[in-house]
Amino acid sequence: MNTIIRKQISIHPEVMDLLNKQIAMEMHASAAYLAMASWCDQRELLNSKELFYKQAEEEREHAMKFFTFINDNGGAAISPSIDSVNNDFESLKAIYEKSLDQEIAVSDSIKKIFKKARTEDDFVTEVFLQWFITEQAEEEDKFRSIIDIFDLMEGMPLKMIDERIPTE
Amino acid sequence: MKTVCNSSADIHIEMETFCRFQLYFYEKTIPLTFPQLLQLRQQLLQLTSPNNLYRIIENENCALLFVADKKELLFLEVPSLIALKEELLFFFSFDTNNILI
After folding, report:
1. Cα–Cα dist B28/B10, whole Å
2. Model's pTM, two decimal places?
3. Which of A55, A126, B18, B31 is the most exposed, fewest CB within 10 Å of its CB?
4. How are beta strands B2-5 and B11-15 bridged, if at all?
5. Which tens digit of pLDDT belongs to each residue from A106-124?
6. How many structural domains does chain A have?
């Protein structure tokens, strides 16, 4: 019986379930970044708005990578429903702090799938996830550096801080 | 025809060809492709989550489930719902230690 399933699907079914949850998480992160971009756009925070629009696209690309990976390996990718997205923020700094929290949550979730893949000897998924682990470390570093700018420029006008924020 | 799964006499899955399967659900026989089996697994995992199961027990105590791309409709009381889920999970359980060698 096991061989029959193995011939149909290259990834472990339980790992596939976690990957589907990850798609939902990435799509939710994309929607959350879009809300942040809108908040910045309305306040003419040009660099921040550009960064968050890019982040929204990037998260969607990540979700699509998971999506095609599941289907390419014989599984069933599930198009997720997006839960309520917060559009209400208190400050630009709070937005960046929230972004860092979100990236950490995504990293933790990917590591959880990585561990599960390793437990189930799902080497295909394990290798696939390695790129995401490196990518998430870079994402976390990006937001940490930006929060550092806020601390270093404390008391300066918001527009000046925004101009210091890298858009790449 | 090769039996691939037989954890219960009333509910079991058989393999017809490489990509055709049969779900025997009491007196009903439903032909399924592998993607349809994956879809059924997903539906059953969702239906039997603690919250959904609690809602079913508190209300109508049964569930209607479309299978095989909505060609068939199953009426599931809670015990048969759980039995079908167990059957699907058993069908999909595979030990890679035995396979990858």
Report:
1. 10
2. 0.87
3. B18
4. antiparallel
5. 999 999 999 999 999 999 9
6. 1
Record: contact A6-B94, CB cut-off 8 A: yes
* CB-CB under 8 Å, B19 with A13: no
Q: Residue B6 belongs to what domain range? A: 2-93
Q: Is A71 on the interface with B (CB under 8 A)?
A: no
Q: What is the DSSP letter of A121?
A: T
DSSP letter string over A136-162? HHHHHHHHHHHHHHHHHTTTS-HHHHH
3-class SS of residue A163: helix
At residue B27, the 3 state secondary structure works out as coil
Cβ-Cβ contacts under 8 Å for B29 (sequence gap 6 or more) = B22, B23
Kindly state whether residue A5 falls inside one of the protein's structural domains.
Answer: no
Q: How far is B31 from chain A (nearest CA, A)?
A: 17
DSSP per position, B12-52 = EEEE-SSSEEEEEETTEEEEEEHHHHHHHHHHHHHHTSHHH
What span, in angstroms and rounded, lies between the C-alpha atoms of B43 and B37?
A: 10
In a domain, B99, yes or no: no
Amino acid at B59: N
CATH of the domain at A148: 1.20.1260.10
- Give the max Cα distance, chain A: 66
Q: Looking at the domain assignment, is residue A81 inside a domain?
A: no
**Cβ within 8 Å, pair A1-B4:** yes
Which chain A residues are closer than 8 Å to B87 by Cβ?
none
- pLDDT per residue as tens digits for the range A53-82: 999 999 999 999 999 999 999 999 999 999
Instruction: Determine whether the interchain pair B34/A8 forms a contact, defined as Cβ–Cβ distance below 8 Å.
Output: yes
* Number of domains making up chain B: 1
User: What pLDDT, on the 0 to 100 scale, is given for residue B4?
Assistant: 47
